[in-house]
Amino acid sequence: MMLINNKRKNIRALAETLRYSLYVITHPLDGFWDLTHENRGSVGAANIIIAMALLTQLFKLQYTSFLFIKIIWEHVNVAQIILSFLAPIFIGCLANWGLTTLFDGKGSMKQIYMAVGYALTPYVLIQFPMIFISNLMTAEEGAFYSYSITFSLIWCGILIVSAVMMIHDYSLSKAILMLVATIVGIMLIVFVLLLFFSLVSDAVAYFVSLYKEIVFRFY
């Protein structure tokens, strides 16, 4: 009985932190401050929002009207789409944490991740309904679709800037500067990872060929 009560309590707490995302997107400065400093948010809620954003991206490719998105699924690698969506989030959190640690940032990796998750809320709230609305629209009404998608991205961008300001206690100019540096950091991390995997691949290929040569000569 106690176990059931604890589960219900945890579910209610998760639902409360998930519902708090609606406050964050309409009151970003106060919202992100309370999110991290008053423990109003949770990693679980951030995970759910990120998962919903990923599903929105996949559904958008599948179900958006062909007037606005033309895609041939036979040529699409779903794993690559998932990776291209999630990798920038995790690498961006890592890059931002590393850079802000060097420049008096007060946020932890956990807080940065939560903030990014909550900042994606408008992406889900706007773009998911637009998937189905797009199928009721004509080509002449495409401007409304484009404006809605653009608005959701701008809203997410404003939330991310607000999150960096509140989490790290930065000014607006410093927050924007850190975000630009974070983008550069993401590119550097991706470059290093690609270089590393390329070297590993070459090394594996070398040892495999060496092994085959030895086997061929002695056996």
TrEMBL record:
Membrane topology category: Multi-pass membrane protein
Superkingdom of the source species: Bacteria
Principal subcellular localisation of the protein: membrane
Keyword annotations from UniProtKB, A to Z: Membrane, Transmembrane, Transmembrane helix
Subcellular location(s) per record: Membrane
Annotated InterPro entries: Yip1_dom
Gene Ontology cellular component list: membrane
Protein name (Swiss-Prot/TrEMBL): Uncharacterized protein
